[in-house]
Amino acid sequence: MVQLVCGHNGTGKTRRMIDMANRSIESIQGKMVFLEANNRHIFDLDYRIRYINTKEFGLTNADQFQGFVCGLIATDYDVEVVYIDGLYKIAQAGMDKLDSVVERLDYLSRKFNVNFVMSVNHDVEDIPEGLRDRIIEEAVML
Hints:
Elements: E1 2-6, H1 13-24, E2 31-36, E3 50-53, H2 62-75, E4 79-85, H3 87-91, H4 95-112, E5 115-120
Parallel strand pairs: 1-5, 2-3, 2-4, 4-5
Helix pairs in contact: 2-4
């Protein structure tokens, strides 16, 4: 499953995802990974959550990002949840790439039983109609 956390810069998406990850770490059987384009929140996450600063890997587009995620899953079959904070900063992909990124992550989710939670810098009404059912409302979390 691929879920989206929506909102413009400064609306609390990162804090919300950190809280979701920290709360859900107790309820998963496998491992959790948190991807971000910096090291800003490394100490906000539970120590059991693997934190990866994607900028250290030089990702510059959506294809490289998707390959990176495939490599992450391929090296550890116990990955159960991947949080992706700031798709646009990580993959430098705009709204025009959102559908294709979600489609690829959906494939990986089904094939390898991995859930993805991804933040996007857009309000709910800006998200394409076909992806709106993936938006996480405040009361619904993994």
